[in-house]
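Question (not urgent): is this output format expected?
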Amino acid sequence: MQVYLPKDHYEMVKERGLPASELLQEAVRTEVRRKELLSANQSYTSDLAAQVGQPDPLTRARAAALAQRIAGHTDRKAG
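Got this back:
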């Protein structure tokens, strides 16, 4: 297998003396794992929806508001 890197990517790897083959292997492993997790998530949420049904608009709105509130929080250190 041959892989093409755009000139700017090639130069970044060469200038930094990075191991291109190892970087590519890790990137492929990471992407395959990401796709596996996305597929498992879709399967899980489909199964869950089949068991309990789709959330109503009010439940969706409450969940969105909660997620927004959580996303707005910053980590605080104790003490």
